[in-house]
Amino acid sequence: MNNYENAIEINGITKKYDGFTLDGISFDLPKGNILGFIGQNGAGKTTTIKSILNIIAPDSGEIKIFGLDHIKHENEIKKHISAVFDEIPFHDSFTATAINTVMKGMYSEWDEKLYFSYIEKFGLPKKKKIGKLSKGMKMKLQIAYTLSHDAKLLIMDEATTGLDPIVRSEILDIFREYLKDGERSILMSSHITSDIEKIADCVAFIDRGKILLSGYKDDIIENHGMIKCSKAAFQEIAKEDYISARTNDFGAEVLVSDRAAAKQKYSGAVIEKASLEDIMLFYVNRDKKEWT
Amino acid sequence: MSSFLRLVYRDIYMSKKALLISAFSFIAFFVLSILIVISFDYGNIRTILLETVLKDLPDAEEMLGTYKENFGFVLKIYPILCAGFMSVEVAQVSINDEKTAWKYFYRSAPISCRKKALVKFFEFFVLDILGFVISYGYSLVFSAVSGIEMSRSDMGMILAGMALGTVIAVLLYIFILMFHSLDKAGLMLTAVFAAVIVGIETYFAFHPQKDVSDTGPFEVLKNAFETLSLYSVLITATFLLVGFIITEMLYKRREK
């Protein structure tokens, strides 16, 4: 593969369905980074991922993976990527050993020794049928074979959904380890923003088929702020200065997209950093402007 | 093991339970059919027929032989169809694939659409051959035990079983790839067979055949199998080839 700057480049991807449109989706995943692709259920994350994997055909737009056109160089690209879904793609009758046999046939770079070392590391049984494993063990098994053919790009669609916090934390540690060489990248879609906040370098936030925010996670969190004030004080904040506000009987929480500017303009207000979850929640309610 | 064979291994691994049940079913009926035909020579069936239906008839032994031959012919149909339908078990794998994320995972793997289609049709072909060998072997054993010589209609039945199994397997597989639903695929398959039957009936309505009222039903069946044998190999080969081409096209197709 040629030298490339971005593992994934998506430019203007549009896909129309009845009642939903993926509208001009654009973002990049720089090499060696983890991009958290966040959005609520039905926002368009899976549709975007399916476009990247060439499972669905977008109506317009361009996708490049490793600097190569994702359709023209499909087979070449797919030797170096690995997709992880929210459920294991193998039938319940398979075992870890049988999966090894199949995967050897799918990837020329398959490393059997590495695979079984992951199996041992994760404490997974080699000969137990998948149907008898817990959800967490199934996901670890998926990750074990995903990481065993030197994939340069992992694409994970809601891979940590439904897992308990301990298993999720273990999996995130594994990914951090996997990216250490700087040559590998991960696109991770999730609606669990706490996971993304822990691990992602970049974030792309999608809502109702549109990318609302994309960029480095730290920059996004640094730029946004949460004004916490009384209801009376809230009335003095100009509508164009905030994304949306959550009000209750005691006061208001107001999300602003430019914390520095808000600090200057509303110098008396308490402005805190917003979490990714807050950012997502407040952007989703942006049309309402004020909500409870 | 080559990468191609490893992909075949995956499908066979998933079919192993179904294939084992088919094998058990085949063996059970094989043994039963042998026992029944032996009973015509030495057992209760002989005794009952000679003491009731064929009692005091001058050509009782000859008629018993005819009963045995005709009944033996019918007995052979189930195990031969069982062997012929082995390839349908592989088509069933795709039903399981629709229920898991396999279809997306397979899509994300570096395997060309042609190779994917080749894997499937290689399996259909191998199972057709295996089914043919098993059916032929069974017919030989049946013939040796029963003393009834193998005839052209036996070969016709074997080839017809293989052809019918191939047609159902290929069509079912293609319909599942098209509709991603077993219900819709089953409905389409039923519609196709209904159309074929209606077509045949319509043909014979406008092209009456010679009067067969004085020919026994077994003779009609045997003649039909003999005629079919000429076309069965052609039908099998055509469905495998055309099915392969269509499957490759369907694998290339992206979701809407």
Major sheet details of chain B: none
Number of separate helices of chain B: 9
Number of domain modules of chain A: 2
**What sequence of helices (H) and strands (E) makes up the elements of chain A?**
EEEHEEHEHHHEHEHEEHEHEEHEHE
Q: pLDDT under 50 segments of chain B (min length 5)?
A: none
Mean pLDDT of chain A: 91
The largest β sheet of chain A comes out as: 6 strands, mixed
Distance between the termini of chain B: 36 Å
Proportion of helical residues of chain A: 25-40%
The beta-strand count of chain B equals: 0
Shape of chain B: elongated
- Beta-strand proportion of chain B: under 5%
Secondary-structure element order of chain B, N to C: HHHHHHHHH
Mean pLDDT of chain B: 85
Plain-language structure description:
The complex is a heterodimer of chains A (292) and B (256). The model of chain A has no long low-confidence stretch (mean pLDDT 91). In chain A, strand 4 (60-65) and strand 5 form a beta hairpin. Chain A folds into two domains: 6-219, 3-Layer(aba) Sandwich (Rossmann fold); 224-291, no CATH class. In chain A, the strands form three sheets. Chain A has a six-stranded mixed sheet with strand order 6-7-8-3-9-10, sandwiched between helices. Chain A has a five-stranded mixed sheet with strand order 14-11-13-12-15, with helices on both faces. With 292 residues, chain A is α/β, with parallel strands linked by helices. Helix content of chain A is 33%, strand content 29%. In chain A, helix 4 (112-121) packs antiparallel against helix 5. By secondary structure, chain B is mainly alpha-helical. Chain B has one domain. Chain B is built from nine helices and no strands. Chain B is elongated. Chain B starts with a helix and ends with a helix. The model of chain B has no long low-confidence stretch (mean pLDDT 85). At the A-B interface, helix 2, strand 6 and helix 3 of A face helix 1 and helix 5 of B.
